[in-house]
Backbone:
């Protein structure tokens, strides 16, 4: 029983990381109806930046917040310079550009920081008070950090004029322009926020899986599964989807299929969701009148 | 009277298809002008051209500034509010959020709260529904919301695209009565596009009649209303 509970709790800890990646995906999807395949590699690059800062002697939290700011700016710049020119292009053009970005960021990570696997410190040491029976200090701490991020985002979208404008722009760009919202900049902000969320997820997952240029490949897959399961247009659904995927992955890995086949869980979930309930658990079914 | 809006040789096209051909018209500050015409005459396109949503050429002088070549957002920021066809409310957001968005570019919280109270006074039903999603409102309520949202901008010019569309006659009468009071009490100039010619001519001071993208006829509303031959040929009643 204790082992079972332990699997569930560490599943939840992983799940909130998947949920954050899923949230970053949903953020861009809501506004543009595209899935940013480069989300994971952008997060990896951000994590490398944090690692490099810490190697240069920065304290953990200094590097943490600076990396978030750099990632936000980076996401904004990518949208302004690379994505904006193809805003109205067909979906396949966008997919190709996203894959191109994935390769570029992956190569940059390897080029600047080389391909050796690196240890990444956790700000929550093993012997701290956060360590409990079911959670390691890092699991507890990272879940806390990501929860704060999620609540912060919720408050931003719910209570600030810019957040409201971003929601309006995502929902109905034409009407948004008619109330004077600069829709294109709202998309840029969305990219910035998604990159920043990705950076936090990357820094929280790096102490667990170790840092190398392909660190986020598997995590992004779980993120996709989480976003699809929760409903790709629903931010709350994405987070809940992440938790479900995390727990399911852990339980199946421990008791049914073994750890080697864990990643398959994500793929099976993706295929199952798309065939049985394409809108996801909490997604809106889109009906098009023809 | 000074001209608030002066349009010269306005052309507009969707891709390769030209819809407006050398349209001239003007609007005096504080007045209501109606644009009438059959389906496909270019009425909606005229409003879209003013907001720079479609590709345009020619000249649009608004309040001393040229609108052609500006972005839609910039035109709105100059004080042109547009109630588009289909109303354009944010259906997934609440009534209150829709109104807040209307005042988005003004960014003055106190004024916004005052204006919202004024809208609620004018349309009490919106106050009852303020936390409800806009998509759940009835057609008439949504039209009221769309007009209120546009007024939250404190516009100099209000563009209205078929406010009577798809609504019951009683509600149409109510909305037109409120539009008149908005014009008289707040001095908001309006450019009104309507299929319902008799209704529009009752409200407007001046009217233009479009036919396949050109101005076929213009004049004071009373003159057009009382001209038997015009009525029969163009307005069909």
Residues:
């Amino acid at each position: 029983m204790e082992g079972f509970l332990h699997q569930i709790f560490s599943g939840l800890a992983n799940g909130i990381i998947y949920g954050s990646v899923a949230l970053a995906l949903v953020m861009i999807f809501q506004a543009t109806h595209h899935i940013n395949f480069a989300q994971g590699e952008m997060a990896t690059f951000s994590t490398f930046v944090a690692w490099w800062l810490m190697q240069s002697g920065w304290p953990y939290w200094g590097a943490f917040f600076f990396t978030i700011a750099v990632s936000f700016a980076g996401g904004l710049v990518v949208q302004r310079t690379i994505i904006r020119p193809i805003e109205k292009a067909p979906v396949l053009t966008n997919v190709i550009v996203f894959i191109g970005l994935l390769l570029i960021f992956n190569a940059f990570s390897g080029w600047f920081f080389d391909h050796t696997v690196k240890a990444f410190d956790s700000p929550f040491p093993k012997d701290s008070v956060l360590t409990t029976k079911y959670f390691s200090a890092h699991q507890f701490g990272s879940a806390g950090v990501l929860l704060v991020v999620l609540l912060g985002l919720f408050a931003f979208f719910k209570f600030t004029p810019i957040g409201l404008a971003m929601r309006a722009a995502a929902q109905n760009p034409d009407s948004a322009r008619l109330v004077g919202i600069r829709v294109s900049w709202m998309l840029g902000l969305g990219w910035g926020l998604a990159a920043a969320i990705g950076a936090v997820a990357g820094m929280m997952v790096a102490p667990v899986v170790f840092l190398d240029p392909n660190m986020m490949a598997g995590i992004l897959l779980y993120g996709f599964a989480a976003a699809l399961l929760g409903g790709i247009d629903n931010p709350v659904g994405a987070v809940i989807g992440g938790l479900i995927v995390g727990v399911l992955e852990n339980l199946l890995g421990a008791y049914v299929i073994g750890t080697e086949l864990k990643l398959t869980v994500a793929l099976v979930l993706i295929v199952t969701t798309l065939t049985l309930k394409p809108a996801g658990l909490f997604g809106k079914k889109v009906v098009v009148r023809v | 009277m000074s001209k608030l809006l002066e349009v010269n040789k306005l052309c507009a096209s969707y891709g390769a298809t030209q819809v407006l051909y050398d349209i001239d018209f003007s609007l005096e500050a504080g007045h209501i002008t109606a644009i009438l015409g059959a389906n496909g005459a270019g009425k909606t396109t005229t409003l879209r051209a003013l907001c720079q949503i479609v590709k345009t050429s020619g000249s649009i002088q608004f309040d001393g500034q040229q609108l052609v070549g500006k972005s839609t957002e910039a035109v709105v920021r100059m004080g042109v509010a547009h109630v588009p066809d289909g109303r354009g409310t944010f259906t997934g957001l609440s009534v209150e959020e829709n109104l807040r968005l209307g005042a988005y570019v003004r960014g003055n919280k106190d004024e916004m709260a005052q204006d919202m109270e004024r809208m609620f006074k004018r349309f009490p039903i919106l106050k009852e529904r303020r936390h409800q999603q806009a998509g759940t409102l009835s057609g008439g309520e949504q039209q009221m919301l769309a007009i209120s949202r546009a007024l939250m901008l404190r516009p100099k010019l209000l563009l209205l695209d078929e406010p009577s569309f798809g609504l019951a006659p009683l509600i149409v009468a109510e909305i037109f009565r409120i539009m008149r009071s908005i014009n008289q009490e707040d001095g908001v100039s309006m450019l009104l596009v309507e299929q319902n010619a008799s209704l529009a001519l009752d409200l407007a001071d001046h009217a233009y009649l479009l036919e396949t993208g050109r101005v076929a006829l213009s004049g004071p509303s009373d003159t057009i209303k009382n001209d038997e031959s015009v009525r029969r040929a163009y307005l069909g009643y």
Chain A has one domain: 2-214. Chain A touches chain B at residues 161, 164-165, 167-168, 171-172, 174-183 (CB under 8 Å).
